[in-house]
């Protein structure tokens, strides 16, 4: 896995109707060496994606000419370009819908530059990892090490005993490290599609998992809660 | 009224009355009555003549609603050229009747409608029982009406006419209709001329009553009727003059202040007494009251009596009397006391018709009243009664409808058994003892059954005793005359006993019915006291009414548009047919009961009673009796009381609501004011900092790097503060507007604490946070996104109000017991709360007094809003175990409702 320090030389499509916001994003991203494309509407964005092949799309959900969730769904039919959704606080349902429709991550307005760059790095890394055979037999997050070949989890060298569910949960999050995973997604992946509405399964098992791998389970440093959306394993960076 | 200044100023009350009357009249149509003293005087002809003139001269829009020409050519010719309203055909008992079509007339809305025979009784199934009620509705709709009526149809003159002519007229028009008429035109011809026309066959007469008619059309009769009609017309003129005088301050020329009280009862003759009193009152131009005194001792009224009494009281009401009901041990004393209290100057009583004996036994009402009356004049009028039940009245309904035959057989059986016993004991006992045995049997039968079986028993006993024991034996002849006394005693005892028992039973029935009504009313009042919202009151009222009246009930409430709409029904799903809704609308519009068993729309299957509370008319109660029978008089009276109770409760609910919303408005106003000041201050301060810092960066190129960095930090800081404030304002608005929709889920407490701590990672830097969540704390049913705000706000608060570096504690514990709940606490080690402000800090825009903060004072209000939306409570206190100043504790208590859903089966298969 390569660690990108910046969005250097990447093409980034900003889909946003607010000129001030576009100005801020262009200035920031160009300062970090990225090429920035701007679209004010979904229609414009739909034209730009096939011709310009952006590496990341920053997508504001609240555009006047349509529904960002629909746009994402249509995009996903033919493209795997990472999509980071930008949305206001209090619109958790929109975020979940966008994520379920295929968006990769989200940012809540207002956000800082560091947060934006971190999310973009994660998205780019995952996009590039797809296709490469993920043959890493071991991943580590701080003191936490997961030996995938031996199915063993250790913290600071001590072996932690996990139930099969907890192990599956942890490896799922580890595979998508840094990315937010919705409750639905986790349920589908760990328990199967029949359990998609039982969000409390995830919560309870997540609490157990935290008790085992976090030094301070109530102030987790790895397994973060994204309120109303899902969970995220804080990445190695 | 004080006329000290001697000026003839109009009485302001009278003026007001006149204004109201004029106002009502402006909207109302005008009524002109063509008044005659007998059929055939030419009323209809005259009416048509006047109408034709109006058409010709003023081109008035005149329509004939209904005019009977009775095939008289001169009348029929007058109809030509005028628009005729089609008649409504009604099938009734095999006949097709042609009736006036009220709905058509209302739809046609002519300026003037002609409608013959004001006293006509409509065919069943029409909206109103009487034509004069149709006329009332037409006038109310603003349509002018011409109509005709004869003197014998006037309610108060009805029996006088009957006395004069010997013909009892059943169709009557209340005097009030006549009094309210805008104009009365007397159509008068000389009786000789009328008789001449009669001989020429110009007067239409119904065939069947020819003999009565012959008697009617006698010169003497006609003269008397003519005089009556003239007098009645003059009286109307008088009233006009009176109204004029009142309006223009002309002093009344008679000493008023007379007030008449007429004592009425159930006896049929009371009707006449009431009419006489009405005439007397009209003559004296004074108010009058019809009063019934129910004796608390003695036999209660039978149902038939009660019905008649109601008819009489209604009659009095329709003649303009106010109606009173009293009860007392002593009828005369009660009556006179009441009369004295209400300044009655004259008491009218009926002449007793019973024998002097009864007075000897029971005392005479007339005598008693006269003795008690003092300065009050007492007038005794022939043909009345003494306010007591009719002498023949009190008979048990059982005996009226005939006792079951088996009771007679039982009586015979018992007498037979007594006979056998007596025959057996004949040698042992004397004749008088055997007589006692038979008496005992008669008494037993009388006590058990009604009068008829008692008479059977008495007859059989007499016969058996006479035949078997009275010498000469085995014959019915009686040797000794003193045995006649024995026989008489047997009959007497039987009769007296059954009479007493019957009375007792009736009383018992009456009192149990009264008790049932009281219980129903009590139940209603209690149930109404327990509910507050109008819908709940309606539901309770409907349910209790269904029980109390054995009926399907619909309660309709007045909408804002004035249309009654069903709000509650019992049994549930009961609905009103469109016609029944019309009955309800009528009851509401006319403020009177209507439908089944009432004067208005008696053909409807429902009875509707308006809900009355003071001036308010919150709705109508509609009952459809399960047995389809009209309500009895006592039930109707009870329904009235019942509806008042419901109306008062509804009115109370409305007032409570109004007061509540007024208080809410006041609070909202207050809030808005403080919101404005807060928002203007708290929004402007960070904006000022941001603008200042940003302009400094833009306009002062000479700043060193450190200063620039400081300015940038300030911008970021203030922007974040602004963001928090806006977020809080939005949250508060959403909570207040009720726009907060919760999507609850089962969430572990640790996760709520955890996500809040993660959110505040930056702000909490350098603070030890101790967390204590025991393993027995169950999952909470909350909306995780919304509930997180509670802890975010509490933690932010702790950070803001306590010195940096002091620890914060987050605790949760489960409390079992009757109402299991999870207690969650955020405790700090700061200066604590100002004593006495613990509750106030949860209000909006309130900041802790001792605490110097920058927030808008919304955080805790939001916390409370969210917690309460989840059914919990939030409190704040200083740590009890320590002296003040050792920190505050905010406690959220959330009841545990229901068990969390089960966890999935453990998946042992590993991936």
Characterize the structure shown:
The complex is a heterodimer of chains A (237) and B (911). Chain A is of the alpha/beta class. Chain A has two domains: 11-129, Response regulator (Rossmann fold), CATH 3.40.50; 138-233, Winged helix-like DNA-binding domain superfamily/Winged helix DNA-binding domain (Arc Repressor Mutant, subunit A, Orthogonal Bundle). In chain A, 40% of the residues lie in helices and 22% in strands. In chain A, strand 4, helix 4 and strand 5 form a beta-alpha-beta unit. By secondary structure, chain B is an alpha/beta fold. Among the domains of chain B are: 31-247, P-loop containing nucleotide triphosphate hydrolases (Rossmann fold), CATH 3.40.50; 260-381, Rossmann fold (3-Layer(aba) Sandwich), CATH 3.40.50.620; 399-505, no CATH class; 740-895, 2-Layer Sandwich (Heat Shock Protein 90). Chain B contains 27 helices and 25 strands. Chain B has a six-stranded parallel sheet with strand order 3-2-6-7-1-8, sandwiched between helices. In chain B, strands 11-10-9-12-13 form a five-stranded parallel sheet, sandwiched between helices. Chain B is flat, with a radius of gyration of 43 Å. The N and C termini of chain B lie far apart (103 Å). At the A-B interface, helix 6 and helix 8 of A face helix 24, strand 19, helix 25 and helix 26 of B.
